[in-house]
Design goal:
With about 375 residues, the protein is of the alpha+beta class. It is built from 9 helices and 19 strands.
Length: about 375
């Protein structure tokens, strides 16, 4: 599959297959693109992600039965991060739901679950008794829209230049409608890098006629944003400690193990949501594993998903995500270990081709928050 910027990516980037899409892994270098986001602004094509309208008078009720977050608390023009669980309390996916108005929502989810989540929501709506009589319609707009993530401390300057001061940047977790040169847009104050930024959805544009998407992308790049590929997207989210579905969370991992069991992501006082009963059982038990971050203690091979994690020579867990951090010039990773060993600065090792490499457990994010990230002071 292709996004609407496929021809531009092929001319300018190094392409790989990602979740069935042909996507750029980088344009210049992962390090350059990574540091552009940390220091100025980068722009990602994330059109491979799923996007759906949920409409109708009962849309809030429908969604509240599906997710552990109480979406009745999400006001018009605001976005909320949460997840959908299976009946066993594991992650089907993590999503962002944006409330456009009283009876209209936008859902955005991961490319790897593009078909799964769409079919699951349609199946639930049409099969469970409590949903049959609800006024709800689901409209998949993934093929008829494009989505770009503008990220970094200077992203507002890029927006001002690109849109000639006619569109203001949305505040964090806000969503606004906009129109520029007769192109309909949605802008949300969200992202996946740990930095300030926004995501821009271009409406009513298609793979067969991608001119609207191409125009908005060109405006953002010409305004000074560094085009960024999947390589920098992964290294940035890893530094920020953001879980990747299919690596760090999946159907067999629950929010308690993933360290995501807290408000506002989950409201256990809700009377019902799919997976609640199993999650209540988990909350009364000591988890067998916990998600942690770690940093290598010397230069050498970076950790990768699937590698063993050890302590004092004994295997204690496994790596779910890993790579090289351009910011601290060391290997960094994410993984699962027993809760008793998750304390910060605990020395551990990861195994690469039979050789042990020293690391230490660290709290996320893996950067100095005074100098980097959305809450930076400098």
């Amino acid at each position: 599959m292709k996004t609407q910027l496929y021809n531009w990516h092929v001319k300018n980037g190094d392409m790989i297959d990602f979740s069935g899409f042909q996507m750029p892994v980088m344009y210049s270098s992962i390090k350059q693109e990574h540091m552009a986001v940390r220091n100025t602004t980068g722009c990602f094509d994330v059109s491979h992600m799923g996007r759906m309208w949920i409409k109708g008078d009962d849309s809030e009720k429908f969604l509240n039965l599906l997710v552990p977050r109480d979406l009745s608390k999400t006001q018009d023009g605001r976005a909320s991060y949460t997840f959908v669980l299976n009946e066993h309390g594991g992650f089907r996916d993590d999503l962002v739901f944006a409330r456009i108005n009283r009876n209209k929502w936008l859902a955005v989810w991961n490319a790897g679950n593009l078909v799964k989540i769409k079919l699951w929501m349609e199946t639930i709506k049409n099969s469970l008794n409590q949903f049959i009589d609800l006024d709800v319609s689901l409209v998949d707009i993934s093929p008829n829209s494009a989505m770009f993530a503008l990220q970094g401390p200077k992203y507002q300057d890029v927006l001002v230049t690109a849109f000639k001061g006619k569109i203001e940047a949305p505040l964090p977790w806000r969503i606004i409608k906009a129109n520029f040169n007769d192109i309909e847009l949605l802008l949300s104050g969200t992202g996946y890098t740990g930095e300030k930024g926004c995501e821009i959805i271009v409406l009513n544009t298609t793979l067969e006629d991608p001119i609207k998407a191409e125009k908005i992308w060109k405006l953002l790049i010409d305004a000074g944003s560094q085009p960024c590929g999947l390589g920098a997207r992964d290294s940035l989210r890893l530094e920020a400690g953001l879980a990747l579905y299919g690596n760090d969370i999946d159907e067999n991992i629950n929010p308690i193990e993933a360290d995501l069991f807290f408000p506002p992501f989950i409201h256990m006082d809700k009377p019902y949501f799919i997976g609640k009963s199993q999650l209540e059982c988990f909350s009364n038990q000591t988890p067998i594993r916990s998600r942690i971050g770690f940093v290598a203690q010397e230069k050498g091979p970076s950790p990768r998903a699937g590698m063993k994690l050890l302590k004092d020579g004994h295997e204690i867990g496994f790596v779910t995500s890993g790579g090289f951090s351009p910011l601290i010039n060391l290997g960094v990773g994410m993984g699962y270990v027993p809760p008793i060993t998750k304390e910060e600065n605990t020395p551990i090792q990861y195994e690469v081709r039979g050789k042990m490499h020293n690391a230490r457990i660290v709290n996320f994010p893996l950067y100095d928050t005074d100098k980097y990230g959305k809450d930076r002071k400098m």
